[in-house]
Write a structure and sequence with these properties.
This protein has about 200 residues and is of the alpha+beta class. Helix content is about 25%, strand content about 15%. It has 3 helices and 7 strands; from the N terminus they run ααβββαββββ. The strands form 3 sheets. A 3-stranded antiparallel beta sheet has the order 1-3-2. The longest helix is centred in the N-terminal third of the chain and has 21 residues. The radius of gyration is 39 Å and the shape is rod-shaped. The termini are far apart.
Length: about 200
Amino acid sequence: MTLIIASITLLIASTFTSSPVYADAVSDAIKFCNKYERETGVRCGQQRCPCGRSTKEVERWDRGGLRFSICACVSKADLKAAANAEPEIQCRRDSDCDDGVFCNGKEMCRSGQCQQGTSPCKGVKCYEREKMCEKTCEDKDGDGFEAIHCGGNDCDDNNPNRFPGNKEVCDSKGIDEDCDATTVGDLDADGDGFISASCR
């Protein structure tokens, strides 16, 4: 009788462990563990769930047709050692961290570790191919008025003394201080209370 029970148990176990679903789950677990070990240096193995006391579950495969789940279990001792290990030196200078991408900013090397950069185009679109930011309307002369060529009303964005609303001055050069061609300004050089005829 004991022999019969043992044979039945062996037959059931063999049925589940030799099924295609079980084989696929084990294969996936092995691939997962191989990749995990390469990336972290922490030992990983697949087994029937649950993991043992000295290991920790990091992934599980539950599939229809499986009598039991397959787990990827990693060494707790290796995890602890990895957490306490000094970080690997990634760089010695900023150029070691440069990924060549303009729009994600300049990477920097700090204490042997690469730090991500920040976008150079805050609030505007970034063009990676041209390695430039979308240009907004300019005010190069700093007079508070934007240039005409980009939709502003500053008639001369290279001269801070020429802008809309500025006082127009009558001068021999005919400079348009207020960006209004219809005004010429007033000039009373001799102080007699009469505007010079040259301003009319």
